[in-house]
Amino acid sequence: MTGKPFALCVRLILFDNQGHILVLKRSSSSKTNLAKWELPGGKIDAGETFDEALKREILEETGFTVVVHSAAGTAMQETEDFRVVHLVMIGSILSGGLSISKEHTEYRWVGLPELASLDKADWFSDYFSMYMGGGAKPSE
């Protein structure tokens, strides 16, 4: 059992009109999960509620103003310094245009089959297996 402190990250599942999910590819200079795909979101700053942090992170990372609807699950990640809990929520876009931050190098709107094949961040891979059916296979 590790004695590392816990940290909380908040993430958001955003759908487009075709039911595709927005994913972002981390920069190759990231501290963890270099060049891996993840849901938008991030850490909570001191004094923020998790929904305030989530809205701020989504605006910073995507350019979207969002509304948060419901919880969609959790995942864990072990880093050098922390045991990180990722709280995943579902939300929708209120306004804005997609413009990714320097933390990420690419974005995609993906369905489950494509999401299953992406090289996902460790926590997102676990989340995907637990909550998204482990990956739907494309029909032959």
UniProtKB/TrEMBL annotation:
InterPro entries from the UniProt entry: Nudix_hydrolase, NUDIX_hydrolase-like_dom_sf, NUDIX_hydrolase_CS, NUDIX_hydrolase_dom
GO molecular function: hydrolase activity
Keyword Lyase (UniProt): no
Stretches assigned to the Nudix hydrolase domain: 5-132
Domain of life: Archaea
Keyword terms, alphabetized: Hydrolase
Name the UniProt record assigns to this protein: NUDIX domain-containing protein
